[in-house]
Amino acid sequence: MVANRGPVSYARSPSGERITRRGGGGLVTALRSLVAHHEVTWIASALSDEDRVVAEEHEGDAFDETWRDDSPYRLRLVAHEPRAFGGFYNVVANPTLWFLQHYMWGLAYAPDVDVGLRDAWFNGYVPVNEGFANAIVAEIDRRPDAAVFLHDYHLYLTPKLVRERRPGARLTHFIHIPWPETDYWHVLPAHLRVAIHEGVLANDILGLHTHRWRHNFLRACADIVGAEVDHAASTVTHDGRTTLVTSHPIGVDPAELEELRNDASVLEQERLIAARRPEFLIVRVDRTDPSKNVVRGFRAFALYLDRHPEMLGRVTLLALLDPSRQDIPEYTEYLAAIEREARSVNERFQRDGWLPVDLQIADNFAQSIAAYKQYDALLVNPVFDGLNLVSKEAPFLNERDGVLILSENAGSHEELGEWALTVNPFDIDGQAEAINAALTMEGGERKRRLEALRACMREHDLAAWVAAQLADLDRVS
């Protein structure tokens, strides 16, 4: 298993003792069952100061760790040179690749492919990928029969670097974010976009969440590197190798969600939400990431209140937002825009102690799970998203026959759109109308939609996603 983030991170307590914290992000949750049922070595960046101390203690080698359910695995932390990692993460991976793959650039003004980006690529992204490749090769030499499962946009160069040194390695790579159309890749100079596509085509398997992203990938490989594409077989042949390209939307873990439903901290947060909620509650749970489209969501809610004054005092939009990547200027600026827009809506509409937008900027997992149970409408309106797990987790836990309002550009829309209210993420008027439709929908229809969403999630759960990855590996072995 290879990803920038590991399943745990290390720190020091106030008393000086080493403490272990569960790694953040959905990837850790998604891959738990693989750790529980297979012999796994996880390779990740040493992100914290204490991570780097741990890596040094083990001289960069893998060591034994345990999952929170006591499942054993081995962890190998790669300590990158700090300046290189800064360029890798804060200039190339985020925001350049993330913004590109989520169609976030306003191309008249950004990006500037300048000497800073060039330096961050050659002295950051390339050496960090080389560090990962070195660690993978060392683990392959220890276990030549092991498959290598890489994840996401941080590691686009790693597969080719490994393939050059270990031609027989079994490599599969899952991209959890959108793959944009060919034209958008032309934001990058030719040598960068070619390096990215040739890097991932060194894999035996390339996985994406949706048919839409898979189609874009196949087309881009033909256009950018002149690869031979078989659309019927969903394969790409380039430089003497054939890569199988698959689409499997990741699922939720029903057992874990059911366990969380009655967790003591979740129940306490639910009590607080229920005590202050008005008649209707709209919920959104997101990172403060520009791709999540929070500002337009607030504007749509304001337009809804304008059109439906009878709802003043009767509905609140509860926005639970996790501050994201605040060391990157674009993210800091967007968080400020979120706060300004929430303040504008509240100053315009609030009265008699009623707050139209209840904005909470914090990483509060229990509060998010509690809000999932309490919503009447769930607003998920990203500009683009590779999948969007909130759109799956929240309906599974909801206890009020809540209605899902879902962007047509969320990857999950391909799977869930039949039972959601579909919105265009740029259409503020359409989102305002969807809010009204959700809150006035007849009870039987609300229930029918929610039950269909849950049935879909139970059938296409996390275990099915993991099984699909392993079945793909068997196909190419």
Task: Tell me what you see in this structure.
With 477 residues, the protein is an alpha/beta fold. The protein has two domains: 80-250 and 463-476, Rossmann fold, CATH 3.40.50.2000; 254-458, Glycogen Phosphorylase B (Rossmann fold). Helices cover 48% and strands 18% of the residues. The protein is built from 19 helices and 17 strands. The strands form four sheets. It has a six-stranded mixed beta sheet with strand order 6-7-8-11-10-9, sandwiched between helices. A six-stranded parallel beta sheet has the order 14-13-12-15-16-17, sandwiched between helices. The two termini are 17 Å apart. The mean pLDDT is 95.
The count of DSSP E runs of length 2 or more, i.e. the number of strands, is 17
Sequence of strands across the biggest β-sheet = 6-7-8-11-10-9
Total domains, how many? 2
SS content category: alpha/beta
Helical fraction: 40-55%
Shape: globular
What are its keywords?
six-stranded mixed sheet, alpha/beta, Rossmann fold
Topology:
Blueprint: E1 8-12, E2 18-22, H1 26-30, H2 32-37, E3 41-45, H3 49-57, E4 63-66, E5 72-78, H4 82-101, H5 115-142, E6 147-151, H6 158-165, E7 170-174, H7 182-185, H8 190-200, E8 205-208, H9 211-225, E9 228-230, E10 235-238, E11 241-247, H10 254-261, H11 264-276, E12 280-287, H12 294-307, E13 315-322, H13 329-349, E14 357-361, H14 365-374, E15 377-380, H15 390-397, E16 403-407, H16 413-416, E17 421-423, H17 428-440, H18 443-459, H19 462-476
